Amino acid sequence: MDLTHRPRRLRQDRVRGLVSETSLEPTDLIAPIFVDATTDERVPIESMPGHERVPIDEAVARVEEVRETGVEAVMVFGIPASKDPEGSRAWAEDGVVQEATRRISAETDAYVITDVCLCEYTDHGHCGPLEAELRGDTDVGEGGPACDPTLTVDNDATLGALDRIAVSHAEAGADMIAPSGMMDGMVAAIREGLDRDGFEHVPIMSYAAKYESAFYGPFRDAADGAPSFGNRRHYQMDPANAREALREVRLDVEQGADVLMVKPALPYLDIVGSLRREFDHPVAAYNVSGEYAMLHAAAEKGWLELEAVALESLLSIKRAGADLILTYFAEDVAAEL
Ligand code: PBG
Description:
Structural class: alpha/beta
Binding site for Zn(2+): 117, 119, 127
CATH architecture: Alpha-Beta Barrel
Binding site for Mg(2+): 248
Strand content: 5-15%
CATH topology: TIM Barrel
GO molecular function: porphobilinogen synthase activity; zinc ion binding
Order of helices and strands: HEEEHEHEHEHEHHEHEHHEH
CATH class: Alpha Beta
Bound molecules: ligand PBG
Binding site for 5-aminolevulinate 2: 289, 328
Helix content: 25-40%
Number of domains: 1
């Protein structure tokens, strides 16, 4: 055969590394951790094998475990001791994230990112206080509120709360703030709050293109943040939309977002790729709980080889254009690398 082009020449073992286009480092990864104010001992999260909710007293130990694998950054989620319609434990000085962050930043070198949202803190489980028409009608466990089902979260009332939460996290020592509630204007509100209170140096990683995804299921068990009625489609994005993601992200860029996140990751790699092409900011992708749980479930059945599919997933997310990846595989994959 007279073949000029033989791509296989560069697939031989000793040259593969030289021509590989993408690499994965432990320092690209962020490990989510769950700190739970309602427990004194570690509680395994059933749908996320290998992950636990840890009491505040064990937050530092949990972060040290992460750091030992070479992963330097954590994303802190909190399960509060109590909930109310406004989610007021979210900005309490002695709140669960504030307390954990204070200890982690004092006692470790980890880079601490905090999730800023209200869904784990409101008794109705939505990502902010409800619109006026719904207030007082929050006993909606069964069929949902009697009134208009399109009413959910009061966007503008939520912004003030997000400002307070972000500042309280920064005061506790958070290195980076990550708002995940998909409220319009949330980045501007938080940027203004942080700057006003002397935290100009604290960057914002916006969950800029966060979809209303069924892949969050295991997380909602883990963090106890499922909405008690309705869903999040009036604030999180429609999975059908790609151009809208660019519009969402552009708004967050105008409001001062430093890092742009796409979430979930694997079903939305087209969005990761288009953000990479359209913007110069670092792009983050959140390999969410459902993406983790499904690989574990298949591996448990003996249908997939866990280490291999985990590594391939993260490599693919990087190849699509992500600079950093939030993933429950962070420790396992980092230990492999
Ligand atoms: C809270 C939040 C969620 C996730 C991260 N932050 C849940 C949601 O929006 O329902 C999901 C993370 C995951 O599934 O791993 N706003």
